[in-house]
What we know:
Elements (H helix, E strand, L loop, with lengths): L3 H29 L1 H9 L8 H20 L4 H25 L16 H20 L13
Amino acid sequence: MIKFNNIVESIPILARTLLIILFGYATSSKFLDFSNFQIQLGQSPILTAYAGWVSWGIPIVELLIVAFLSFPKYVYHAFFASYSLMIMFTTYIIIILNFSDFIPCSCGGVLEKLSWTEHMLLNVLFIAIAILGIVFTTNKNHKTKKLL
């Protein structure tokens, strides 16, 4: 019989694993086709002026998140960073879909094969995964108030 505590304890582990796979894959695909990634960012109506910085910044942040997710001491904060980055990606997609005539995709690998709807659903799924990681991870440095 599966115990409830075992399920609850496995949620952050599963969330960490899925986020590591997502960001690890995304980072490696960006670096493997870096010149194309930079060109696509340069075509973005929002990011054109910052394409150089953003093209290095995004994969570096993704790598840092993967590293922090790999160490239990930093997992709690890495879940917040994952959540924040996914919110930023989702916000960018919403803005670009609603206010731009040209919609470049700067995602790499399999992710660039997704439709924008599928991409949004994937982002929402990973936002939910990051939230589950936050909720089910206890941070020894983070004091929580009891509601009752």
